[in-house]
Amino acid sequence: MNAAPENAPLVRARAIDKRFASRTVLRGVDLAAAKGEIVTLIGPNGAGKTVLLRILLGLLPADGGEVWLKPGLRVGYVPQRVTIDETFPLSVRRFLELGRPAKYGDLDVALSEVGAARLADAPVQGLSGGEMQRVLLARALLRDPELLVLDEPAQGVDVIGQQELFALIVAIRDRRGCGVLMVSHDLHLVMAATDTVVCLNQHVCCTGGPETVSRDPAYLALFGAQGAGAFALYTHHHDHAHDAAGRVVSLRTGAPDHGHDHDHNHDHPHAGGHRHG
């Protein structure tokens, strides 16, 4: 039996349809993600992004089309949100152990990989949005995933934290060689750290590399020239983030960028109107 080619898909969906009562949520959607590839689903609220993820994960049936997964595929899933009882005492370590007993060493390695080793014994209820996302990412990594699936991973995370989180996701892909499938509406930062963009609005409006999609008429119709201009601004000024030591890290590679000129001007608008001081 011949080995699968390096770029063989880990997951593939073809002609996916989904309806809730009389409302069409997805229509004829095709999608694929391969080993080592970061694929990002973007689109407005109500576009069907999370529904498509749930169908791919087998959590929701499709009304039409087919989904194929690599046999035995290991999937690590980071959900959009997790609700935890505020009155239930739960440490990060215990949270990671729930539902999947793991060795302490495994937990510590996963937390270290996402930059959250110091949080092992902290109460989950006291975590910030960015800290919680790192813990959820560590939980997904405990499965040693071939495919990492993240639903709005930057939700509740500030702009700087988003840059760091997406740089971390790129670094995990590079280190582990896994595929990554993300959902986001944080277009500017995500598109600067992805290989393939799928623009969804019940159907696939356009797909391709970030710069190609940002110029596509279908993308412009959804997000307007202002969205395309903001993307161009971010790819020019925000091709990097900073790690805990303040070092410049490339959003494209997740690796330290020793050649980055840090004297350039950062005084420009960000999503939500934030400006560096």
Descriptive report:
The structure is a single chain. The chain is α/β, with parallel strands linked by helices. It is 31% helix and 25% strand. The protein has helices at 49-56, 92-97, 104-113, 129-141, 159-176, 187-191, 210-214, 217-237, and strands at residues 9-20, 23-34, 38-42, 64-69, 75-78, 147-151, 179-184, 196-201, 203-208, 240-242, 248-250. A hairpin with a 1-residue loop joins β8 and β9 (203-208). The model is unreliable at 1-5, 233-247 and 259-277 (pLDDT under 50).
CATH domain class of the largest domain: Alpha Beta
Number-wise, the strands total 11
> How many helices does DSSP assign?
8
Strands in their spatial order, largest beta sheet: 5-6-7-3-8-9
Distance between the termini: 59 Å
Output the helix-strand order.
EEEHEEHHHEHEHEEHHEE
> Unreliable runs, pLDDT <50, ≥5 residues?
1-5, 233-247, 259-277
